[in-house]
Amino acid sequence: MSSFGWSDVILKYKASVIDKCKFVTECNLPSVERVELAGRYTEPVIIQKSKAQTEKYYREHVRSAHATGSKPLSQLISNDKNQSIRIDQLFSPDSDGNKPKYVILKGDSGIGKSLMLQKIMLDWASREFYSENFDVIFLLKCDEVKCLSQKMSLNELLSWSCSLTSDQISEILKLTPEKVLILIDGIEYVSHPPSHSMLQLTNPSDRAQPMDILRSVLKGILLPESFMLVTTRSIAADALMNLLKGPQRFTEIMGFSERGVQEYFQKFFQDEKLLKDAFESVKTNESLLTACSVPLLCWMVCFCLKKHFTDDDHVMRELKTTTSIYVHFVFTLLEHHDQSQSALTMLRSLGQLAEERKEKQQVFFDEESVAKTGLDPATTLFLYKGSLKIKDKQEPVFRFMHSSFQEFFTALYYVLLDEERSWWKIHGLFPRVEWGDKIYRPSPARSNPIPFLCGLLNEEVSSSIFEKIKSPAPHIKTLKEKLVESVIRKATHRGCELLFALHCLYELQDERFVREALKTHKFIDLSNISLRSTDCWVLLYCLPCYADIRDLILMYCDLTAEKLKILQPVLCMCEFLSSSALDEHVSLLLSSFHSVGLKTLHLKLVSLNESWASGIISLVQICTSLQQLSVSVFGLLLEEGLMLLEKSLTNPHCTVIIEGMKCSKPTDQCKEQDWSHSCNKKVKIHFKPKVLEKLEE
């Protein structure tokens, strides 16, 4: 085919992509019009993990399984900063000039991963960006691919997902594979068999099961010259790291900043007065404003406000938890759309459908499955009707409007059952095989209703639900105690498991249970977790419930100024704080301790530079109750930081102890990244009040 012919083929393909991706249907209601994606899309915050952090994550989560060639943890310490990155920069060259071939984008449910891929497709087809980098972009949605059972080639699989024929795709992959980008959405739906049993395909024309083809693409065995962007839920990231031969760029979508929330409101509300009133009502509820950093929750809040702002304002001000937002959204839809069934009957039917699909690990279901539960497929709220091409035929299929609604309705179904059946179902959510005393979330491909269960057992939320459906709730208290006991028993001291348990406890909004969960904890370690604003709000609620926690480890948590402001009341509770805060946030971080009457404080830092030295000096000067400040530095005590301390702490009112590595060279001293050089020696430096020095003499 001539170059002109190929150009015509690609132009037609781009036109089909625009038709497919131009609009986003936000709700399955006759009264809701389709919205243009370009007019509604708001850029979320995306964090690009630094090279050192990516290598560290890869070694800890993947290479540790092989126990060969891995470096000691101490050799992985770095002050290499994570940074924010835009959607059009995902494949930009790194600081060394290398262009990444594989990009992993992880994020929690509802954070906007799928919508971002739709935006990339639309912008490429519209020549907004990426059109110069890539001749063709394909999008494969793993939840859809999982529905395919017939054997096919990679060319046929890509053709199944788009308007190009398999012959056209075959020619493209032969001519310019290096100008092809494949977007793979929702890799958590792909199972990961052991490497020795994995079918390895090398030819795009080889036929196999679609999931085997996907694994070969992910491994780089198929299309090794092409580029790839993979999205995954946060809980499935470890499994993906094992599947890939080695990530080139590791990113995480964090949701909206406060400015992003405001921008989304501006795009949602066309009326200026309604916009102002809506945003002001949300701003008065800090927890709700923080929840709006999750794009899905932000849309739900805006939807409810738009439906009935005048009588809804006071209700929105009282919403605190994710579950309470879902409950309010669900009943807003039910109240504004006449249904032949009662609310209780419909909710039970939706719950039964959700629970059955959870057990079968199915996202899509047919009309018969919907009708079996007593729902009317033609008018049922909360379900989207679409179609899937199966064996060259478009088949009608249904799915929940978002996977999180499947989790929500499953949880609600359990709560609506009688006590014995309810607990039997809930008990089955906790894994029978446990590692240590950890609570592991269910398989990433499975929905996880545990946080919603906790939220539905919140006294205010449960009473609101049962009042609206006109039904008593006799077993809520017993069910709540049993569920919380299971969560508490398996909570750990650190990491994602602890954060997950704290989110569950936050949904409950019962301080008694939080105290019980944390009573054995002396420290909280959340190292290497990119904390979202919602995570910080959970910590703000949970940690003050138990005053014995004195050690907070927040290394490499991507704490922005917004997040630090949320955490400030919690930080001042600590006597031991480990942080890798950015230089521009040091003063904000340390200002948390200025007026809390602390006598001792132990800081753990990555390096002592001028910013940290300035923050330490300010803390010593302002916090007059402080008797001893100990600073442990993993990396280097830089000359700039030490000189500033020596100049300013000639007669501090308290003892300041600085411990770390110092370069012994008289000139050309080592920089932050050179901390492991042999010229760096461990030192311990004391700055003492002159009165104390005289007494010691």
Kindly describe this structure.
This protein is α/β, with parallel strands linked by helices and 697 residues long. Among the domains are: 3-255, Rossmann fold; 258-310; 581-697, no CATH class. Helix content is 44%, strand content 15%. The chain is built from 30 helices and 20 strands. The strands form five sheets. The protein has a seven-stranded mixed β-sheet. Strands 14-15-16-17-18-19-20 form a seven-stranded mixed β-sheet, with no helix packed on it. Strands 1-2 form a two-stranded antiparallel ribbon. Helix 11 (272-283) runs parallel beside helix 14 (309-318) and helix 25 packs parallel to helix 26 (561-571). The chain is globular, with a radius of gyration of 27 Å. 41% of the residues are buried. Its main location: other. GO terms for molecular function: ATP binding. Keywords: ATP-binding, Cytoplasm, Inflammasome, Inflammatory response, Nucleotide-binding, Repeat, Ubl conjugation.
